[in-house]
Model the fold of this input.
Amino acid sequence: MTVFEFAGHAGRANKAFEEQGFRLLKDIARELSGETPYSPYFDPIVRASIRLCKMWKNNESRLADTLWAISPEPEIGYRLLRLTQSPTFNPEGREIEDLPAAVRHFGIYLVRTVTLAIAMNRLRQAQGMAKFAKIANQFWEHSIMTAAIAHVVARDAPHLEANEAMLAGMVHDIGAFYMLYWSMLHDEFRRQPDDARNLIFHWHENIGVSLLEAIGAPANIIEAIIDHDAARPFPAQIANLQDVVHIANFGAFSRTDMTDLAHETEPGIELSAAFAENYRHLVPEIEALHQELRAVFS
Done:
């Protein structure tokens, strides 16, 4: 389903959202399709993230290209250098003193993760977001926990790449941050934040997929986040990246304060319980990485 088809379906499917929701989704669809330039209200670092992601359509991007994309925004370099203090990502404690060395050491997946995480955090902290602060903070904490779980779980599966899994875990709810940003720009949603919350809860997955497609994210990352909130049997064995994101997403619900977003359906509760049962032995590693990531982005 294209973003336009999705927006049209959303507007017709629920009369309660028809006037407000359809307008929001059409605006997002128009921007993601490239009919309008990216919003001038975007924080410069969000625009830098978009620029870098579009460059990632070529996975063989040179170091110089990556540095060109991220160097205008000092925070990206600052966060990457903070990551060098992480026992997980620099276990030997190597001295990494500049940005080119950090990019070479971490590789493209970690650079992508850091850049997009900063962009999501900037959208969360945007001026005027006060009405949506609680839900934005919950999505942020959930994203960091999901990223930590995805990394640790994938690290335990030899056929998967842990940094790739962490990227997918970090961005699996990126559509929610984008929709929160757009809700903030519309008076009717600022006046009735519960309407925005309901819209975001039901459709952030689809918007996230469309957003990642628009900015040129790798196909395997996009595929991994599709239907991540859908209740399906807990996998006995991890087959692919989508399994990791699904496990990490429901595992994160049981480990963060998600009072406004929790999957209170019976299948959701069962999946969270299955995670706790099957991955209890990884909890110390998950908690350690979670604290490292929080420190990097604090």
Remarks:
- DSSP finds 16 helices and no strands in the chain.
